[in-house]
Amino acid sequence: MPACRFAATIVFASMLLSLPAHAERWAASWTASAHGPYPIGNPTAQPELKFAFPAPEQGASDQTFRLIVRPDVWGSQARIRLSNAFGTKPVTFDGVFVGAQESGSAVVEGTNGAVQFGGKDTVTVPPGESAVSDPVTLSFVKSATDPLLKGRKLSVSFHVAGESGPMTWHAKALTTSYLTAPGAGSKGKETDEAAFPFSTASWYFLDEVDMMVADDSKVVVAFGDSITDGTATTLNGDDRWPDVLSRRLHARFGNGFIVVNQGIGGNQVAGPPDYSAAKPFPGGPSAISRLDRDIISLPGVATVIWMEGINDFGAADATVETVADGYSKGVARLREKIPGVKIFAATLTSALNSTITTHGRPEVDVKRKALNQFLRSAKIFDGVFDFDAATLDEKTGELKPPMQPNSSTGGPGDKLHPNRAGYAAMANEVNLEMIAGSRK
């Protein structure tokens, strides 16, 4: 080989070796919108909690939570956010750990890593505020693309020192988590099940898990009410429409897209006009008032899919103009704060003849159809996904019969919330190419 070519080869090889590894950044990988103080909310299949939480005003008392969540993608490092958004007194957390769930409340031995806040093992979160942890290395994540990580769940354990007072929570987890008895002390370091006799179908204090991911990963936020939150689908089955959408995106694009769920059962676009810990509402604060916390504050957001409004009509008798104006203001706010964000509307599914009589009225269905027409024709969105068309029985105007029976608690369903089959049909209505856009 000529000397000049040999030298060039050496220089080129040196350049390759000196190139930095693929850049990474933080991205939200799991979320659950904090919507109020326990027990105000709409849980599904909730076990009896009077032994775990004898008095709501007292809240947690010297006890440990072991919350089970499913990150949509994994990274070698994680961080968590603990929220006291609707508390009335400072809450002190210590004994915080994250690890791979084995089964039930057991954690895989050797995976349970301690979490710190500002280099300390304890953090006190004032009322109305939240705290983001320091990064913690997930020793069991050797590669974010490891197929054995798909669907695996993360155990997040933390101890509440003293009494918490009213607890900030997300009622409808549709996922089983675990609790110690009051006064049991700090048990987060323990990996077996012995210390966690109580179960719950809700999440408390924890509202976000971030992962360190490739810097071209894009977060898709599913934003809405109980139909996004997953009412009537399977317990522990991860069969909400955002879950099904996530699996479709991963099958097509690997870890390039991350789907997080910011639905709240009972949520409204425009109401209630006032919301506070002292004046809670089961559906949480309005969609418009929670945009900053639940979408804009999340790292990595590139896309929002927004489906909401039936509760404005059913529970609050709002006008179509009020809800449409709320959408317009919300879209403008998102575009101002997240330049380049894609915003898709999803049409409202039928509630006609629902056993929830406020929502099943014909006049509500008239408003629903009018709002859907606004969503389909408004020029403020990047596109529309027609969930109504995917689930509507044209003969009756109701949800299609196979989509009505409740998939979690059983029974005939309420003709408002689609079941597992209905949610799958909704997710399959999403055009993945519209989500991906010009992605390379």
Helices, strands, pairings?
Elements: H1 3-18, E1 24-31, E2 36-37, E3 61-69, E4 77-83, E5 91-103, E6 106-107, E7 113-114, E8 122-125, E9 130-132, E10 136-137, E11 154-163, E12 168-170, E13 177-179, E14 198-200, E15 203-204, E16 206-214, E17 218-224, H2 226-229, H3 241-253, E18 257-263, H4 291-296, E19 301-307, H5 310-314, H6 320-337, E20 342-346, H7 357-360, H8 362-377, E21 383-385, H9 387-391, H10 420-428, H11 432-436
Parallel strand pairs: 17-18, 17-19, 19-20, 20-21
Antiparallel strand pairs: 1-16, 2-12, 3-11, 3-13, 4-9, 4-10, 4-16, 5-6, 5-7, 5-8, 5-11, 12-15, 13-14
Characteristics of this structure?
440 residues, 11 helices, Rossmann fold, alpha+beta, 21 strands, single chain, disordered N terminus
What does the model show?
There is one protein chain. The chain is α+β, with helices and mostly antiparallel strands and 440 residues long. It has two domains: 24-207, no CATH class; 216-436, 3-Layer(aba) Sandwich (Rossmann fold). Helix content is 23%, strand content 25%. It contains eleven helices and 21 strands. Strands 3, 5, 6, 7, 8, 11, 13 and 14 form an eight-stranded antiparallel beta sheet that branches. Helix 3 crosses helix 10 and helix 6 packs parallel to helix 8. The model is unreliable at 1-20 (pLDDT under 50).
Short description:
The chain is an alpha+beta fold and 440 residues long. It has helices at 3-18, 226-229, 241-253, 291-296, 310-314, 320-337, 357-360, 362-377, 387-391, 420-428, 432-436, and strands at 24-31, 36-37, 61-69, 77-83, 91-103, 106-107, 113-114, 122-125, 130-132, 136-137, 154-163, 168-170, 177-179, 198-200, 203-204, 206-214, 218-224, 257-263, 301-307, 342-346, 383-385.
